[in-house]
């Protein structure tokens, strides 16, 4: 990510810019000028190799125009690099962001050494599609004049996923069902508001827990079996009991299934409060994932 590479790249790009700017000034004063030029060329080749092979975009802006762009920046902007050089800074962002972006660029070059560009900076590509980047900007001297050195990386897919998750979470919090999402080790990775309220835990507390932590002792030995069954079946159904923070017990009937997200498997289920003491006479649905015993097995244990 940018945070892991920006200090190194910034330091060397800044140094190269300063050396370039001073080259002509000192050309007639340095006896071994050719050796200096050779050393500078080697350094520049090294930095060029680095900047052209990182996945983060790197640009330098000066006088409201782009004066440098690496390969990744061209890919994100959707323009050939030769078209970016000399392009006004505001040409690659949305109209509503242009004044703000230009003002920030000027503020950086006026002396604010580090200014974080908006967390989600929209990039208006050549094909008029929009992508989002996270960017960090620094003041440098480039050919003897103030400039902005900007590092950024594409967060478009991450933003889409976050927006989708936020919307889904909003919908799930609107229902009375309690919903749990577990990884394949039984760790709770998502829980909705209804599940928190019914069990007396905060969301933050539940997200630090494993499903075993809220499973009644007599059902704990079945959890690993249920995880295996979830992996083997499209859907699974079983009975279990959850223990609330205050020690109260909630008998539940669970229905769940395996879902895939980001190349990983998760267990998602809906459980019904079978105690008859839920918010209505109709049983309360609660999503729990594979924490108990199936209906047939629970009936056997109760006999």
Q: Uncertain regions: pLDDT < 50 for 5+ in a row?
A: 1-5, 279-303
Radius of gyration using CA atoms only? 29 Å
Kindly state the number of beta strands: 13
- Mean pLDDT across the residues is 79
The helix fraction, in percent, is 40-55%
Describe the structure.
Helices cover 40% and strands 27% of the residues. β1 (57-62) and β2 form a beta hairpin. The strands form two sheets. Strands 7, 8, 9, 10, 11, 12 and 13 form a seven-stranded antiparallel β-sheet that branches. Strands 1, 2, 3, 4, 5 and 6 form a six-stranded antiparallel β-sheet that branches. The chain has helices at 2-26, 33-53, 71-77, 81-84, 98-110, 156-174, 193-199, 203-206, 217-220, 223-232, 295-302; strands at 57-62, 65-69, 114-115, 121-124, 130-142, 145-154, 180-182, 188-191, 235-243, 249-261, 264-273, 285-286, 293-294. Residues 1-5 and 279-303 have low confidence and may be disordered. α1 (2-26) runs antiparallel to α2. It is built from eleven helices and 13 strands. It folds into two domains: 2-154, PAS domain (Beta-Lactamase, 2-Layer Sandwich); 167-302, Beta-Lactamase, CATH 3.30.450.20. The protein starts with a helix and ends with a helix. The protein has 303 residues and is an alpha+beta fold.
